[in-house]
Amino acid sequence: GNGSTVSDFILMGFEQSSPSTQALLFALFLALYSLAMAMNGLIIFITGRDPRLNSPMYFFLGHLSCLDVCFITTTIPQMLIHLVVKNHTVSFTSCLTQMYLVFGVGVAECILLAFMAYDRYVAICHPLSYTQIMGRQVCVRLVGTAWSFGLINGILLDYMTFHGPFCRDNHIENFFCEAPIVITLSCGDPQFSLMVIFADAIVVLLSPVVLIVISYARILASILSRASSSGRGKTFSTCASHLTVVIFFYTSAMFSYMNPRSTHGPDKDKPFSLLYTIITPMCNPIIYSFRNKEMKGAMVRALGSTSLAQAESV
């Protein structure tokens, strides 16, 4: 009733699916999660250990993989558990914590992708000054800024989501605690909180997009004015991996947080939620690995040395 207070939430997720469908989804998502963890873990390992990858681009890539590991671990293991058990209840505190981590890590990844675009701009347009502009301390500060802003911004968004009492339905029509859905369950008028989150999304999502667009516009102008056709192809190949990741991540995030809730529904929200919570973190290392010769070489060396060490131990 209106006088009661919600102390926990029920994640509907894929509860309406048949047992056979849930079993299939469990196997599929477990495979995707395992692949994402393995690929991102490998990138974190080789970017930290391989001296041939001692450059700002791979420093940023290692932190991007770290963010992806945090992101998928925040949501996917819980979803896998709910696919095999009947109790889909999560406590108020667990929901708040999960949402904070999703916000914090997601915002940090938005900012980091913008810094990675700036890194490509400096490398291509100012190659002679690249090492001075993108020194180690500068890279550490940029990564620290991304992490810090994401975690601080998460506090604001968490507060706007949970500051009011909850005395309505406690069923969340998704597989994790997503802010726009949770806000609509609050007793008060959700419009102000939704407007704040919408405004925050404009700043957090569109500001990095502006930096990315400016960086690639200058890259395009630079290579068209002075590079040969072969040089253009190599430069475009270098930038294509980052652009692909940006398109995947920003498309799904903008749909989830910058569209009116009236245009949403469980059938529309879940695919986009899956896209940015598991598909994008899984695709990021694959995109960078298959389009980058240095990454492929480093992976072969890492896997080869591991196999050799295991053979010697036997």
TrEMBL record:
Pfam families associated with the record: 7tm_4
Domain of life of the organism encoding this protein: Eukaryota
Annotated compartments: Cell membrane
Keyword Membrane carried by entry: yes
A single Gene Ontology CC term: plasma membrane
GO molecular function terms listed in the Swiss-Prot or TrEMBL record: G protein-coupled receptor activity; olfactory receptor activity
Record-linked PROSITE patterns: G_PROTEIN_RECEP_F1_1, G_PROTEIN_RECEP_F1_2
Annotated TM spans: 23-46, 58-80, 100-118, 138-156, 192-214, 235-253, 273-291
Domain G-protein coupled receptors family 1 profile stretches: 39-288
Membrane topology note: Multi-pass membrane protein
Keywords linked to the UniProt accession: Cell membrane, G-protein coupled receptor, Membrane, Olfaction, Receptor, Sensory transduction, Transducer, Transmembrane, Transmembrane helix
Tagged with keyword Cytoplasm: no
Family according to the record: Belongs to the G-protein coupled receptor 1 family.
UniProt cross-references to PANTHER family, sorted A to Z: OLFACTORY RECEPTOR (PTHR26453)
Protein name: Olfactory receptor
Species whose genome carries this gene: Loxodonta africana
